[in-house]
Write a structure and sequence with these properties.
- The chain has one domain.
- The chain is 72% helix and 0% strand.
- The protein contains six helices and no strands.
- Helix 2 runs parallel beside helix 6.
- The longest helix has 22 residues.
- This is Protein C10.
């Protein structure tokens, strides 16, 4: 857990930027485009096809930065980022960019919204 001793806002930003760069590499970008095409606009299909790809890429990146390359490492990293983004708008912006890959924008019609 020595990686936590040096983990701060700057290293968090660096890891997030590395994740974005990894996602945008030609091979990864192609795989994600194909997964998105298969999913269409169906959220369940996005979670089935796109989300696992993004999580795998994130695992590869955080492992290079000393985090465990497994689910627990990803959960730990995500929790740290969520805490940091409250006070750092750049971390929040970078995290939002990553989330936008697998969580498409949802159009809400506010004039016809009905709470059930």
């Amino acid at each position: 857990m020595s990686y936590l001793a040096s983990f701060n806002n700057e290293s968090a930003k660096q890891i997030l930027m590395d994740i974005i760069r990894t996602v945008n590499q030609p091979d990864n970008s192609k795989k994600l485009s194909e997964a998105k095409a298969s999913a269409g606009k169906e959220m369940i299909l996005m979670m089935q096809y796109v989300f696992p790809l993004v999580m795998q890429l994130q695992l590869e990146v955080i492992k290079m930065h000393g985090f465990p390359g497994n689910r627990e490492g990803l959960v730990q990293f995500s929790q740290l980022i969520r805490e940091m983004e409250r006070d750092d708008t750049e971390i929040a912006r970078l995290r939002s960019q990553i989330r936008a890959i697998y969580l498409p924008p949802i159009a809400i019609n506010t004039t016809n919204d009905i709470l059930i």
